[in-house]
Structures are given as structure tokens and as C-alpha cells.
Design goal:
This protein has about 375 residues and is an alpha+beta fold. Helices cover about 25% and strands about 35% of the residues.
């Protein structure tokens, strides 16, 4: 698979990139496109790809990611970034499904049915739009259509942290409430990946004693805002600011299987005395607070990717879904992390800062995460 990463700030930039690559003989069939819907005219951008007959798997982003080893920068704003691939069209398919008021699990079932009918052994990259989309239920809905787990990786779309409206799109259509799926034929294209966060648990396990979906009211019988201020108010010179604590000290939601997923606090609702998280936090579940952000988190994620590289050393391209909350917490360190990932494989890398991530963790479970990075390798084979 021949792959090229790209970055642009307008349709003119996209045209110039495609013209330049076409002059070298490279004729892509597929673009993985991550773009700011706030700053760019996306129809103009997608029209540029349509002119060249390039299919588009598109997701709006909270920041764009591209690293090819030629500069120190890897995270960009108000731009479009992605990968151009020359994959035979018989080996992939792009499907988009509008959700409207359809529950996320049902939307996942629709996408899973499509994938199961498209290829006998599909692998999926997915992007989900809609500020109320439930990535956990979407993932469960897709997997419910398969007797054995299939590779699924992706993220929730962003909107430059405006938190108003997100988008997924092809070269000729879009939806603000739906899911886009890129299915690969696993007999020809291997899709593998791993989710890593680096945040470590601190303190004793606690119980969610009152919650509704992603809204938490009580932890161990204590109002959740008071719980943050009581347990974390004095740590790391942190003032009793529950909004800061909720974002910098995500909850580790412990699954029955023994592993945990992060749930980042998005909004402190003082009227309801509650915190709204980036994913479901079931009542009765067990949680722990997390360490504050720092270099140890980056090092832990790097170690996880080293282990993944040892298992999957070959790739034609890398796709990165990295939480915007992670970007905000780690600051410039996020670029060191991205550079490190790319240099392990030394192939083109592109992706975006998301509002939630989907993928398999090191324990082999597929789940939905916050404050996590999900790195995916794409590798083409000449024969099944």
C-alpha cells in the first residue's frame, strides 16, 4: 500500500497536494480526512477529492494530527489532515448511516449489519458524529452482529471544542447525527491497533452510588463535587476547583473483567450538583481517581506502543485517534508522544483529536475511552 500523509488549510492546498502527487504517478483511491468544520468549507475540500475520483472517509476534528518526520510540529488547528492511500477499491468500502433519534446501539447494529454483508472478514475504522452519541453503545451494537470479535477502531468527531455540532462525511454527503464506517477486507488489509492512556489509579476504589448515564451525582454517598474537593483539593497544589479536578483527574471505571477505562469530566453542573462525563458511568460501578497529567503518562503510553510495535512491527500507514482532553492535559508533550509513535514504524501518520476513542486495549478488550490515544496500523498483503 502506497500511503502519503498531507496537511492543508484550504481546498487550494488540497488541489496542490493532489496535483503534486499525481505528477509523480501516485493516484490515490481513498482519503482518510480529518478536518475543522469550524474554520474550513468542507464541501469545497471534498469537491477537490471528488475531482480526482478519491473516496473520502471524513470526520470533523477538535485538532488535526499529521507527522511525517520533516518538522517538529504534529498537532494543528483550523486545518485538514489525513492519509492518501492507493488501495484497490475491491478491498475497502465506505458506508455512512444517519442516526437522527435512533439510539446509538441500534445505529451500531445497522453499521455492523452493513459491514458483515460487505466483507466476510471485515476490519472497521469508524467515526461518530453527534454531541449526544454514546460511543460505548455504538461499539456494542456493531459487535453484536458478529459471532467473533472483529477489529474496530475509531473516535467521536469534534468541533474545535465549541461543543455544538460535529460531523462525519464522504466526498458527497454528510451527517451531524450518524456514523461513518471504513471497512477493509481483512484477507488483504490487516488493521491492528491498541488503546493506551498512561493515567494511573490513585486512592482506594470507590462506588458510584447515584448516576444516570454519563451524569454522576454521588460517589460513596457523597455529592460528586464534594468528593472531588474532599479527596483531590489539596493534591499537587490544586485549589478546590472541581471543574479543574474533574478534567485533570479522570475517573478510572473498573470493568467486571478487571481492566479499566477512563471517564473524563466535561462539565460541572452546579445546579444539579453533578458532573457530566464523556461516557457512561453506571450506577453501582467501581471507580478510582487518576494521577494528575505529566511526563509519566506520556512514558507509559510510549511503553504500550513499544509493546504493540513488537507484536506488529510492519505497517504501511498509521492512524491516530487521540482525545482532545489528553491534548489539553499534556500540552506540548502530546507532540513528543506523537513523534515517538511515528518513529517506531517510520511510515506516514495522520489522525485527529477526538471527543472519545474506540479500540482494543492491551488486555484484548474492545471498549470506549476518554483521555486515551488509539493507534492503528494499516498493512496491505499481496495475497490472502
Amino acid at each position: 500500500m502506497n500511503a502519503h500523509s498531507f496537511l492543508g488549510y484550504s481546498a487550494t492546498d488540497v488541489h496542490a497536494t493532489l496535483d503534486r502527487l499525481s505528477a509523480t504517478g501516485f493516484k490515490p483511491t481513498l482519503a482518510l480526512l480529518f478536518a475543522s468544520k469550524v474554520a474550513l468549507d468542507l464541501p469545497e475540500i471534498t469537491n477537490a477529492f471528488a475531482k480526482y475520483g478519491v473516496d473520502v472517509f471524513g470526520v470533523s476534528s477538535a485538532s488535526e494530527i499529521m507527522y511525517d518526520g520533516t518538522s517538529d510540529d504534529s498537532v494543528f488547528d483550523e486545518s485538514c489532515a489525513g492519509l492518501l492511500l492507493d488501495v484497490p477499491r475491491s478491498r475497502y468500502s465506505v458506508g455512512m448511516f444517519s442516526g437522527g433519534d435512533i439510539p446509538s446501539f441500534s445505529l451500531g447494529e445497522t453499521a455492523g449489519t452493513w459491514a458483515s454483508e460487505t466483507f466476510e472478514r471485515p476490519s472497521l475504522l469508524i467515526g461518530s458524529s453527534g454531541m449526544t452519541a454514546d460511543g460505548e453503545q455504538l461499539t456494542k451494537g456493531i459487535l453484536s452482529k458478529f459471532s467473533n470479535p472483529i477489529p474496530i477502531f475509531g473516535g467521536l468527531a469534534g468541533d474545535d471544542l465549541q461543543l455544538r455540532e460535529t460531523l462525519v462525511f464522504t466526498r458527497n454527503d454528510s451527517t451531524t447525527h450518524g456514523v461513518i464506517c471504513l471497512a477493509f477486507d481483512s484477507d488483504y488489509i490487516t488493521v491492528q491497533g491498541v488503546a493506551a492512556s498512561g493515567w494511573q489509579p490513585i486512592g482506594a476504589p470507590k462506588r458510584i452510588t447515584k448516576s444516570e448515564g454519563n451524569v454522576v451525582y454521588e460517589i460513596d454517598g457523597v455529592p460528586v463535587i464534594d468528593a472531588y474537593e474532599r479527596y483531590l483539593g489539596g493534591m499537587n497544589n490544586l485549589t478546590t476547583n472541581s471543574a479543574l479536578a474533574a478534567s485533570n483527574y479522570p475517573l478510572q471505571l473498573i470493568r467486571p473483567e478487571g481492566y479499566s477505562v477512563l471517564r473524563a469530566g466535561l462539565v460541572v453542573d452546579t445546579e444539579r450538583n453533578a458532573i457530566i462525563y464523556g461516557g457512561t458511568v453506571p450506577e453501582g460501578s467501581t471507580v478510582r481517581f487518576s494521577t494528575p497529567p505529566g511526563t509519566t503518562i506520556i512514558k507509559a503510553a510510549q511503553q504500550a506502543m513499544e509493546s504493540f510495535h513488537n507484536r506488529q512491527p510492519d505497517a504501511d500507514a498509521l492512524v491516530l485517534f487521540s482525545c482532545k482532553g489528553r491534548h489539553n492535559a499534556l500540552g506540548p508533550g502530546i507532540e513528543d508522544e506523537i513523534e515517538y509513535f511515528q518513529k517506531l514504524w517510520d511510515v506516514p501518520l495522520a489522525g485527529y483529536c477526538s471527543y472519545g476513542e474506540i479500540g482494543y486495549n492491551e488486555e484484548g478488550y474492545c471498549d470506549y475511552y476518554n483521555n486515551t490515544c488509539v493507534l492503528v496500523t494499516l498493512k496491505e498483503h499481496t495475497t490472502p
